[in-house]
Amino acid sequence: MKTALRQAGYRRKSHFLHYHSTRFAYVYKVSTNGSTSYSRPNVIHGPKRYSAEEWSLAETMTHNAAESEQQSAEWVLAEAARLAEETREITDRAQEDIDWKFRQRFREMEHWRDEMKLNFGDLNSEIDAMSIYRRRLENALSTLCQIIQTNDEILKLRDCRIGVDLVNDEPQKQILQEMKMVEGIQSVLKRNMEVCTEQLRLIRKCAVVLGRQLRDKDTAIDVDRIAYNFDEHRASVQRQCEKLCIDDVSGNVTEQDWIDATEKSKLDAEKAVNASIQFRTTIDSILRQICEDLRREICLTNFTFERRLREVIQAKERMEFQHSAITVKVREIEGTICKLSKAFEERQSAVALAETRACIRGQRPNMEKIRDPLQRRLYLAIEDENEQMTRINRKIMEANVTIRNLQRNQLDLEEMINIKLKTIAIDEVQVIPLRKSINIQEY
Questions:
Q1: Mean model confidence pLDDT for the chain
Q2: Rounded distance, CA 405 to CA 399, Å?
């Protein structure tokens, strides 16, 4: 139709319709002064009269215009349908990709969460184990303090020994050596106690950090599940008024930063657990070695005490035997002195008899008073008896001195026996029960 109009000399369809729908008439007008003028009046719409060709042309033009507009409308409808289908497919693919990434993110976060839960459980178990080992070290230090207190009390008790038994004997040296050994063990346990406290602090710190990250991951998973369960048909989904910025809702943490932080926390937890396990193994070895050394040292000290007690008891028994023997000897010497005194009295009677006879014979008259063999024998008997009396008297004096020495020795033995009884009472009744009260267990 547009081509036909151009061939007829019309540039537009409206020009054709306007030209053929109007007529121009010029009206004769006479003014008041008698002059005549012509002017163009307003358009007057008269009855329309068209030719058959114009009618056909107008119908053809209207029909062609309608068909053209219908074709344009069909093209618009087709483009709109295609655009709607394309956008729907793009949206569906985007939603499917988003849902897949949501599920992938769920699997990834749940995997890390499960791994970190295992590490968190290991940390809590290790905290309980380290607390137990710390109590074991405290019990070991408490036992060592009790050993030192017991040994101090034993030393004070043994200082109550008297006399020659207040000696720096083998048990005394052994118990001092044992105390020195216990003090060295105390220093080792105190150092390990400090290490144990620091290790426990590090494990608790890792557990706090890991627990916080686990809570954050649980919250993130819950938030992602809420976001995943939303769709465009839910009433709570609203269009944001302003354009969102990914940095506003995601922060400055990249995925690699998140992975690095998670792996670092997991690695720190594993390192802390492994270090704690190695330290507990070391503590087990140390405590086992300490128990063995203490048991061996305590058994050696107890053996020296028992051996020393047997020595003291044997010494006391020997002294008691000596005391009994001296008592017997004193009685024997006393009996001998009685016999010597009786012999001395007999010698005195014999001397008196000989002297009396000599005196009686001294009354012989004149020449009869001679030194005959009888007289010489009497004088010789008197001298022999006096000599025997002197010897008996000397022997009696020696016997008395011996008795005094024996009695003094007996008193010394009694004093020594009392000293030994005091030592035995201290070692057997007080010290050895205290030593037996020391009980070394596996801490």
A1: 82
A2: 10
Cα–Cα separations (whole angstroms), residue 349 to 76, 92, 114, 341: 181, 158, 126, 12
Residues in a beta bridge with 363? none
Handedness of CA 417, 421, 427, 431 (dihedral sign): negative
Q: Which residues contact 122 (CB under 8 A, 6 or more apart)?
A: 269, 270, 273
Pick 35 or 437 by higher pLDDT. Answer: 437
R_g (Cα) of the chain, nearest Å = 69
CB burial class (10 A; 0-12, 13-18, 19+) of residue 357?
A: middle
Question: pLDDT at residue 116 above 70?
Answer: yes
The DSSP bridge partners found for residue 23 are: 44
The count of residues in the chain is 443
Question: Distance between alpha carbon 375 and the CA centroid of its chain, in Å?
Answer: 115
Q: Strand 27-30 vs strand 36-39: parallel, antiparallel, or unpaired?
A: antiparallel
377: tokens are 């024998």
In this prediction, residue 328 carries a pLDDT of 92
3-state secondary structure of 30: strand
CA of 21: how far to CAs of 34, 47, 65, in Å? 36, 9, 20
User: What's the CA gap between 51 and 55, in Å, rounded?
Assistant: 6
Cα 70 to Cα 64: distance, rounded to the nearest angstrom: 10
Predicted confidence at residue 142, as pLDDT, reads 92
At 234, the amino acid letter reads R
Residue owning tokens 């005091």: 422
Instruction: Give the Cα separation of 39 and 298 in Å (integer).
Output: 149
Q: pLDDT of 168-181, one tens digit each?
A: 989 999 999 999 99
Reduced to 3 states, what is the DSSP secondary structure of residue 28?
strand
Listed in sequence order, the DSSP H helices in 159-232 are 170-229
Q: Is the pLDDT of residue 110 over 60?
A: yes
Q: What is the mean pLDDT of residues 57-65?
A: 88
Q: How is the chain split among helix, strand and coil, in percent rounded to 5? A: 80, 0, 15
For residue 372, the cross-strand partners are none
Q: How far is CA 401 from CA 110, 330, 331, 408, in A?
A: 108, 11, 14, 10
CB atoms within 10 A of CB 273: 19
- Among 35-49, 251-265, 317-331, 339-353, the minimum mean pLDDT is found in 35-49
Q: Provide the pLDDT confidence category of residue 294 given band limits of 50, 70 and 90.
A: very high
